[in-house]
Amino acid sequence: MKTIEQVSLKGKRVLIRVDFNLPLDESLIITDDSRMVASLPTIKKVVSDGGMAIIMSHLGRPKGVFEKRFSLKNIVPRLSSLLDAPVCFSNDCVGKSVVDDVRKMKNGDILVLENLRFHNEEVGGDEVFAKRLASLGDIYVNDAFGVTHRPHASTAIVPRFFPRKKYFGFLLAKEIFSLKKALNHTKRPFTAIIGGAKISGKIDAITSLFNKVDNLIIGGGMAYTFAKALGGNIGKSLVENEKVLLAKNLINLAKKKNVVLLLPSDSLNARTLKGCVKTNTSNILSIKKDYMGLDIGKDSIAKFVTIIANSQTIIWNGPMGVFETEGFELGTKEIAKAICLATANGSFSLVGGGDSVAALKKFNLEKGVSYLSTGGGAMLEYLEGKKLPGIAALMD
Ligand code: AMP
Question: Which end of the chain has the smaller Cβ count within 10 Å, N or C?
Fold first, then answer.
C-alpha cells in the first residue's frame, strides 16, 4: 500500500478524492463535519510539503445537473476555517475555467472543485470525463473510503491515468488498517453486531462474517424477519417476507459454522412510531397483532452486553432499534455503552455505518470506540471480502 507519507509533494498538483458528502440543514449549514475533519491530515500534508491541493468530491445525489443545495461551495468556509487557510473554489470540476483556476495555483494553495455528480459521467464511470479530471493533477490521492465501493470515474477510472503516481491518503490507509486488524489479526472472541432496518444489503456481510466471527448479534428491524423465520408472531413489525426463508437458512448456516447467532429474546413494542406512546415488552416471538417491535428488550440487552463484555474484537454496523425516537433508544444506547466499556478494558472495536455512528454521537460516546469508520456501505463490502474498485485501482 503506497501512502502519501512516502512521497514529497513539493511543487506537485495533487488531485485528491475526498468524501465531503456532509449532511447540511435547510439553511445549508453543515450539521456534522466528521468526514471533512477525517481528511484534514491528507490535505495538510500536501500543503506543508509545498504541493497544490486540488480537492474533488460529491455531495448528495444530484441527477447530473447543478442544484444549489448540492454545491460544494456550501462547504468551503468550514474547510477554510478547519485548515485556518484560504480555500479557493472552482465553479465546475472539468472545463476551461477549471484548467485556468488550476494554472493560477501556487505551492501551498488549496482549490475545491464543484460537485463531481453535477456530471452524469461521474457515476457512469466515463473514461473521457475521468481523463479530463486526471489532466488537472500530477499525482492522484484517494482519501474517500466511503465511496471506494463505487466504480465511479473519480474513484475507479481517474487512477488509471496515474501509473506509479497514485497513493492512499492517510484516512483511507487508516480505514483499511483498522478493518484488516479486525479481520486478519483478530483477538478472540470476535463478535459482530449487525442491526438496522433491513436484512437486504447486509446478507452477504452476515454470510461472510460467519467465516470469521465467534458471535453474531442481530438487532434492529431485521431481527423481526428472523423471528418470523422461527415461526414467531411479530405483529406489525418491519418484515421482509421474501427474506424469511433466507433468514432460516442463515440460522442453519450459523449452526454449521459453529457461530453463536444471537437474536433478541424480547422486544419493546408500540402501536405507532411516535414518542411517548404506550409500550409493552414481550417475547420477540409473541408480539401482539396490532403492535410493532421498535427496540430490543431488557433481557436481550443484558445478554448482548455480557457477550460484548467478553469479546476482544467487536464490529458494529446498524442500530438495535429506532434510536432516533425517544423511548426506543435504550437498546442502541446500552449496546454502544457496552462496546465502549469493552474498549476501555482493552478490546478492539470498529464501528461503521451512518446510523451507528450517528447513534454514538447522539449518546456522546464516539470517542469511546477504537475506530469510527467513515464508510457504511464500503465497510460492509470490505467485510464481505469484495474487491472495492476504488482500492483495486490504487494497487496496479
Ligand atoms: P440501516 O440503514 O439499514 O442501517 O437502518 C437504520 C435504520 O433502521 C434507523 O433509521 C433505525 O431507526 C431503523 N430501525 C432500527 N430498528 C428498527 C425497527 N425495529 N423497526 C423499524 N426500523 C428500525
Answer: C
